[in-house]
Amino acid sequence: MDALDAKYPFFATAREAVAEAAVSLPELVAADAPAVERARERVERALLDGTVESESGAFPAESAYDTQAELLSYPISRILVSLLDSAPAIEKYAAAEAATAVDRIRADLATDDELRSLSTPTVGLDDVLAEFDLADAVRPEATGPATGDTPAAASSADRDPAHYWIAVGPYLRLTSPSWGPSWRLVNRALADGEVRVSREELLDALEAAVEERVREGLPFELAAGEGIAAELESGVEDLKRLLSERTYTGPIDVVAPDLFPPCMTNLIEKAERDVDLTPPESFALMAFLVGIGMTPDEVVAFCADTSLDAEGIRYQTEYLKDDRGTQYPPPTCQTLSNYGICHNEEDHMQVAADPLAYYEKRVADAGEVDDWREKNGIAADGETA
């Protein structure tokens, strides 16, 4: 086992390392080994904060856990999330694993070539593409001119290009029109069966690939109260209790844009300038609007004059919405800060830890509030009354 396996536990080499170590997961669980504690934290942070990074710090430099505990926490966390018996929990867990992985990949790619051999093992983009069978499907866009029969010399831009071309099949599999109009194939540069993407867009697609792999095989078929499931029962109950405490049980059911948290106002204003939101930005905004009690049709009407398209809005909001409201709250302020969405304006994190709690407090403090839906004659189906 090495640090690279622990950083990317869903890689094939990491799975092989676990198998070759011949470690008994049931024995680890029975002994309540550090890997079990880390697995519980991994799932808790995934479901509540949208990351699987340890609260003790980023692995490996700052984390309190060693390589073995970090790596083995991954298969144990998959068992834990399976025992929660919740499809939304699996989706949120997989998304958090993917988001953390891409943050680590981004940091690895930013590491200077000369420092890579002297510091913690890192992956290159070619390694990640090969891991997901995309080596032949993605190529960098050349920037330097060729002379005669001689290819262009590799420049720093060629080694770290701003754009790539990805085969249309993998592009369609790994991306979604719900991410915004710019992701629709009709709005992309397309040539010879390849789609042009920016470096960040390629990382977004790779995040989807990681999420897809993490989600594969979940939930495990485990008999509750038997074997490893019995040993993990107390941990599962702790997670369920935490979720019940953090789950938003009823929408505020008032739409007052003037009272929205600054981060949500910033996202709305950005979309109103016809700027595409990133997938994390779009998800955060949709989760908030659903969380305050808006129906998919109302969200479509609210976002009518923005860069957000109706089909993408419906896809995200209908996924987030059920008869009881949202399954989990939107990401916390800290998670939004990690994505550069929340800037803690006026030190509002001291007031509330997440956008819904902040908005609920502002609505309560405001007393009588005019509902945007009533002012604009918007019915629950999104039509003007």
UniProtKB/TrEMBL annotation:
Domain DNA primase large subunit C-terminal: from-to ranges: 255-349
Family designation: Belongs to the eukaryotic-type primase large subunit family.
Keywords: 4Fe-4S, DNA replication, Iron, Iron-sulfur, Metal-binding, Primosome
Cofactor section: [4Fe-4S] cluster
Protein name stated in the entry: DNA primase large subunit PriL
Coiled coil feature spans: none
A UniProt-annotated Pfam family: DNA_primase_lrg_N
The protein's assembly and partners: Heterodimer of a small subunit (PriS) and a large subunit (PriL).
One cellular component (GO) term of this entry: primosome complex
Gene Ontology terms describing biological process: DNA replication, synthesis of primer
GO MF assignments: 4 iron, 4 sulfur cluster binding; DNA-directed RNA polymerase activity; metal ion binding
Organism, as annotated: Halorubrum aidingense JCM 13560
Domain of life of the native organism: Archaea
Purpose of the protein: Regulatory subunit of DNA primase, an RNA polymerase that catalyzes the synthesis of short RNA molecules used as primers for DNA polymerase during DNA replication. Stabilizes and modulates the activity of the small subunit, increasing the rate of DNA synthesis, and conferring RNA synthesis capability. The DNA polymerase activity may enable DNA primase to also catalyze primer extension after primer synthesis. May also play a role in DNA repair.
InterPro entries associated with the record: DNA_primase_C, DNA_primase_lsu_PriL
